[in-house]
Each structure stands twice: as structure tokens, then as C-alpha cells.
Amino acid sequence: MLGKLKPWRRALAFQWRCFCNHNTGKVTTDIVIIGAGIIGLSSAYELAKQGASVTVLDRGEVGMEASWAGGGILFPLLPWDYRGEVTALTGLGASLYPAWMDALQDSSGIDPEYVKCGMRVLSGARSMQNAPIWCERHGVRFVEKDGEFMLPDVAQVRNPRLIRALGKTLENMGVTILCGREITALEKRGQRISGIKTADGTIYSGQNYVVCAGAWSNNLIEIRSFPVRGQMLLFEAEPGFADSILLKDDIYLVPRRDGHILVGSTIEYAGFDKSVTAEAAGFLHESAAAILPELGSMNPVRQWAGLRPGSIDNIPVICRHPDMENLYINSGHFRYGVTMAPASARILSSLFSGEAPPLDIGAYNCQR
Ligand SMILES: Cc1cc2nc3c(=O)[nH]c(=O)nc-3n(C[C@H](O)[C@H](O)[C@H](O)COP(=O)(O)OP(=O)(O)OC[C@H]3O[C@@H](n4cnc5c(N)ncnc54)[C@H](O)[C@@H]3O)c2cc1C
User: Fold this and answer.
1) Which atom of ligand 1 is closest in space to residue 41's alpha carbon?
2) Ligand 1 mean position, distance from CA 90 (Å)
């Protein structure tokens, strides 16, 4: 009988027989995911695709934290400055995007505005001398001209649309998403999590739990992740005002299809404070005008901030907890969580199914 099930279902059926549920709430689902950002949602997508029943809980609305706030560039800024583990995960993530976007658009009817618009790294950007060797080594196409560096295959996605497409697809797949549920504690019984408790005292339980709580993950479980504020500025221009992403050092301009130009972003260690500052607005506006002078005379239409789930060297934690056998973590994606999301979700689902992970995952475990 078990032989007819997919590998993942076989593993789960085995655990099901071994695990006697002692907690007060009933077993509602195979997998409970804490956090409905891009990481929690993409994890739910991969796990549901494997046949698991999945429930995602978020204390707020779906995808309204870092995943909404980001720029949607599907490539690291100045990737030659990063460690191989970042390159591996962002590279795999970016390569999975085209098929993922087609699947989400087909299922949801929502266009996430995935577009290969290219990224121009402007002259004077730091550590440019390392770029050609890095690109050649990693098979990334580039054109070098007049001290500038064009990466024609870099793509972008429009975050709010991606979140909506993913949410709708999950709904179509039968995934339950519960908003307004703040998880305050993981209830332990021996070496297992027996349930998760919300602020109003309700306990939700499943067979397995995945923490995807972004910058707040460390409040639930120790993973050395920390909030890093990023502020963004938005300009309204005509469509076609700029056609590729423009980057100078850490400041980038992202042109959306409808003409909006996003300018990002600051890197601030301000705890969980998500407020915006006049100082950052001034800095971003000035930096944007240095890249595209026309922006100097335009007024920004919006400013916002998001909290990135910071991690050492931008390397997330994607693993089973070393002590709790039914607890998993997918968190700490710092500056590149949107890019890494489909790859991280594949790694997570391989931990459940026992299938070979898509890349060497040693660097992403909790104990590194
Ligand atoms: C300004 C900015 C620009 C960025 N630009 C890019 C970019 O261009 N490209 C790129 O790849 N990445 C970018 N990023 C990074 C990317 O956005 C993040 O790495 C990614 O969104 C992290 O996703 P997440 O799901 O882990 O976190 P989040 O989106 O923050 O989601 C975490 C969720 O967990 C929920 N939660 C937290 N605690 C609890 C709890 N106790 N109970 C229930 N729910 C809880 C929160 O409400 C939230 O919805 C940017 C980030 C920022 C802020």
C-alpha cells in the first residue's frame, strides 16, 4: 500500500503511524508553516505539489512584510562580492523563475510581471574589476562597454503581484492560509513540537512545522537572524522612461512596466522599527538623481520600509532542527529572499521527501 504513494507521502505515512498526537488541539494538517511571506508561501507551494496538506499562518496579511517591500530584482547586487553559497542559491532560484511564473500565471490568472530587463552596473561601482572573471566562471552573459557592465539576462518580478499570484495558486491547490494569527510559542513534548500557540491561546497542530517568520524567526527559535531595515522611494514616470535595472554600488533603480521607478535601498540596523525617515528619502533621491538626472526634479510619490531577515553573509538557514525532529526552518534570506525563494523551497521539500536536494545544502544548516 505504501509503495503506491509518492516518496514524500510514504515518509509521512510512516511518521503518522509512529507519532501519537498528545496535544490538546486536533491534528489539522500534515505541515504547519509559520509566516506567509514569499518564503512561507513558496515552501507551501512545493510541499503541496508533493501531495502534503499544508496550513500557513501569519499574524498579519499575506506577504505584506519584507516580501511586499522589496525591489524584486532576481539577481544579487554585485554578486562577485558574495560567497559561493549565495551564488548557488540565487543562481538556482533565478533559473527556476521562468517556469514558476508560467505555472503561477496559468493557475491564478495574475501576471507577476516577470521580465528579463537586464541590469546595467554603472561605471565607478565598487569591485567592478572582479566582474568579468566572476561572470565567465558562472556562465553569466555580460557586455562590457565604456566602463559599464550590462548583464542582459537579469530579470525582475513585481513583488505584490507575485504574492497575489502565489496566494491564489495556493488557494487553488487547497492550501489553507490563516491571517491574523500571531504565533507566540512552540509547544514542545520531548523531541517534538506538539503544537503552536497563538496570541489568543488557540493551539494549531500538525505533524510537522516550518518556521518561515522572516525577520521575526529568531523570536520563535534561535537562528541568529536579525532585522535589517531597507527604505525605498517610488517615482511615477512614463512607461519606457528606463528599460533596464540601473545599479551603482548599493543603490538601484528598478523600472516597472507601467513607468513606476523604484529606488532602493538603505541598509539600517534599527531593530524592528519600520518607520521611514526624511534623511533616507533625501539620500535615496540624491543617489537616484546621480544615476538618472531627470529624477532630481521629480517628486517621489511614495516611501516605505521593510525589514529584511538578516543573516551572516546573506546565507539563510534551510534545515531540519537539530534537536526537534518535526521542526524545520526556512529563514534568514536577508537581501535575496525573493530570488532564492523557489530554490529554498525545493531544498525544504527534499528534506521532507528524502529525495536528493538540488544542490549541496551543508552550508544552510542550523549549526554552521
Ligand atoms: C527594501 C527591500 C528590498 C529588497 N529587495 C530585494 C530584491 O530586489 N531581490 C530579492 O531577492 N530580495 C529583496 N529583498 C529581500 C527579500 O524581500 C526578503 O529576503 C524576503 O522577502 C524574505 O521573505 P520572508 O518570507 O522570509 O519574510 P517576510 O516577507 O518578512 O515574511 C515573514 C512573515 O512572517 C510573519 N510572521 C512573523 N512572525 C510571526 C509570528 N510570530 N506569527 C505569525 N506570523 C509571523 C510576518 O507577518 C510575515 O508575513 C528586499 C528586502 C527589502 C526590505
Assistant:
1) 25
2) 16
Task: Report the amino acid identity of residue 98.
Answer: P
Give the tens place of pLDDT for each residue, 4-58: 334 444 444 333 322 223 344 454 789 999 999 999 999 999 999 999 999 999 9
Percent of the chain with pLDDT over 90: 86
**Per-residue cell: 31:** 505541515
DSSP type of residue 57: E
DSSP string, 244-311: SEEEETTEEEEE-TTSEEEEE---B--TT-----HHHHHHHHHHHHHHSGGGGGSPPSEEEEEEEEE-
Residue matched to cell numbers 534551510 = 318
* pTM above threshold 0.70: yes
User: If you measure from the C-alpha of residue 228 to the centroid of ligand 1, how many angstroms do you get, rounded to a whole number?
Assistant: 10
Q: Does residue 121 register a pLDDT over 80? A: yes
329 alpha carbon – ligand 1 mean position (Å): 14
Cell numbers found for residue 140? 553569466
Cα dihedral 235, 239, 245, 251, rounded to 10, equals -10
Nearest CA-CA partner of 330 in 5, 104, 100, 93: 93
Q: Sketch out the chain's domains with CATH numbers.
A: 1-77+156-222+313-368 (3.50.50.60)
